[in-house]
Amino acid sequence: MKMYDDYELIVIGGGPAGLGAALSAREHGLERILIVERDVELGGILNQCIHNGFGLHYFGEELTGPEYAARLIDRLEGQAIDVLCDTMVLELIPGEQGHTVRLMSMAEGYRSVGSRAVILAMGCRERTRGAIQIPGTRASGVFTAGTAQRYVNIEGYMVGKRVIILGSGDIGLIMARRMVLEGATVLACVEIMPHSGGLTRNIVQCLQDFDIPLYLSHTITKIEGRQRVEKVTVQEVDDHFNPIDGTEIVFDVDTVLLSVGLIPENELSRAAGVEMDPKTSGPIVFENGETSVSGIFACGNVLHVHDLVDYVTTESEGAGKAAAEYVLRCAHTSHKRTCEKTPYISLVKDETVTYTVPQRIRVQCVDDHVRVFFRVKTPYKTPRRIVFRDGDRVIASFRRPYMTPGEMEHVTLKREQLDEVLGDELTISVEEIR
Amino acid sequence: MKEYICIVCPRGCHLAVDDENDYAVTGNACLRGAAYGREEAMHPTRVVTSSVRVRSRKHPRCSVKTDIAIDKSDIAKAMLLLDDVELIPPVRRGDIVIASLFGSEANFIATRDIDE
Prior knowledge:
The complex is a heterodimer.
Chain A: E1 7-12, H1 16-27, E2 33-36, E3 52-54, E4 63-64, H2 65-76, E5 81-84, E6 87-93, E7 99-105, E8 109-120, E9 124-126, H3 129-132, E10 142-144, H4 145-155, E11 162-166, H5 170-181, E12 185-191, H6 200-207, E13 214-216, E14 218-224, E15 231-236, E16 249-252, E17 255-258, E18 262-264, H7 267-271, E19 276-277, E20 282-283, E21 296-298, H8 309-330, H9 333-341, E22 345-349, E23 353-357, E24 360-361, E25 369-376, E26 384-390, E27 393-400, E28 409-414, H10 415-419, E29 425-432
Chain B: E1 2-5, E2 14-18, E3 24-26, H1 31-42, E4 45-46, E5 49-54, E6 61-66, E7 70-71, H2 75-82, E8 86-87, E9 96-98, E10 108-110
């Protein structure tokens, strides 16, 4: 047996994306699957998200993060899917016949394992103080919200007493409530944009419920303190995000939590030569989640940052199915070459749309329809049309009563609509309804 | 008049609830919004989630939640009860951590398994 036959599929990451992908690949006929997870247990970041609100779409009920993870982990039972926890993937090396994954763990040391297909499901990580360069001293007490969440919910350490939160992303909002419930005072949540980055539900239940003020178009311009954070200066910003003199507000706090964005964790993908999309910071993928490297697929937050885990699971099931089909049908060299040569159309966006996933569609490979996920650049409070055009011809058009950048949108393009595209580009734009 | 942002769907309608006029709701775009606004004004409730101590080397905390939504005004009181709890493994999700909060039907239950 050649080394690339060790496994049919290796899934990198055992969070909601990896679990969904592995289960789906198993369901679609693969028999030798390995999940590699760097934490000591499966479940990924769901394990520290102890609040509820997960699963409304996928399971049809409201679950906490650990419960959502457990539902997926329970399904692994009896499925003959190998799992390696506490194991780090050091390198992914693509090959003609199959791919090589280099692993390291305390228990088993260094290993090299081969697989026909690989699914990237590494998730994302948080932007840090360094990424946004807040001036001031380097006192202790500055945490990313997710790190604080792990300390409080998993490890049982309280991170501070008087807290300010920068960024109104969902994790920041969730942590505002969590800190108050655990006895801290949260003085403010500060957001540089003129609109909140989090779900409305979280603004209401995490800030308003506890009378925490939200400062829009404001940012932290200075962090002071010798050993520990002592005070933080907040300023209003102008349209170009420059601080406005004279608007300084000083807060006496010992803790700063940052919720300033998430970055898909793609070091492995980049090193493997996977083509990346600068807008999503994730791989460019085709209609079935396959990256530019044949046999390597991506799903979940490593592909693009989702706001609901339910969508991650659904997307990952698609990638798992596609990987299974690839292994079972396309692994023959001749077939693979045909796949690689299949022409595709590129989805092009105008200035109203931030990104789309997938970025490329191989029309011949679309069975019936393809779901296109996208985010709008600015909020729309009144109805708009989402229009797909091939040159001047409208291929498809969808109406939405309202849209916001904080909520990912999706539309379904049918195969017969895609068949009408003559060029190699399809343009997506948000337009007024005439 | 009380004002709320509806959280039933992502649209986020700004609701006004007239508590002097039979809790009439305006600003809603759908019936679900009206029901939400009325409920928020008359009897706001929340599911409370937190974590408690566990006698375990691997997992120092176990996550818990109230199995039904409790009165919003009881949240702080409910949180204080959790301070005195220490679970001994094995813990199974769904295990009752604190039964019938304040004599109600609500319990704090574990939301994860801890084997050892």
